[in-house]
Amino acid sequence: MPIEWSETPDARLSIAGAGLEYACWGPEPDKAPTLVMLHEGLGSVAQWRDLPAQLAAATGFGVLAYSRAGYGGSDLAPLPRPLDYQTREAIDVLGPVLDAADIRSAILLGHSDGATIATIYAGSVSDMRVRGLVLIAPHFFTEAPGLAAIRAAGAAYRTGDLRARLAKYHTDVDVAFGGWHDVWTDPAFESWNVADAIDHLRIPVLAIQGRRDPYGTLAQITEIEDRIYSPVETLILDDCGHAPQQEHPEPTKAAITAFCARLDRLERQVVSVA
Length: 274
Description:
Largest sheet: 7 strands, mixed
CATH topology: Rossmann fold
Number of strands: 9
Number of domains: 1
């Protein structure tokens, strides 16, 4: 039975034994394509703020956002997380989420960890429902500056106000933070690299990156451009860090809206020719 399509559903998704909070905006999946939003490593449904509603209004698409296990109001995840947690989220969870929501045609929109999960899914799973990717501040391999920034975030969490700022979004903030931080600062994670997923993409991609992102350099975007076989568009924002959708919301929303419109127009042309 399809899920309740609502901004405030009464139930949660039941995926891989975990209850996941979710929210939906705009038309249901049988009425229009769906933007599926995948949050960052410390994110949740609520932390997208007004962006889902704004994108639904601007694109005419439906929007589905969910919190992964361990985040937001979803069930907790056991710690420590495995070093390949992003691959497991892509392979074991994302497909069942699309199934549960009865998604017919989707653009995956991911930020940071969510962008990586979206890329792994699209590059590893043959799912014809996924028609495009929007990747905001993606990462495919570790970089020394990014690892240093994560260690600094750990210090801010322990001694500053970061824990208090995150706590209002997560049922158990220590699980949310530890599940992310402890993987990225594990010495065994320094060799992590999932860029080969890019080689298998056969759908259009929009990649958005801030020049001042402390967690990833433009090398991540260059990796996409050098390896991808399908069309790729990029938006590189000056004076922008890790969250373009918050730091430069208007150009970010405009780029996403235009990308969705082009894909939708192309899909309609293909259908009319057929």
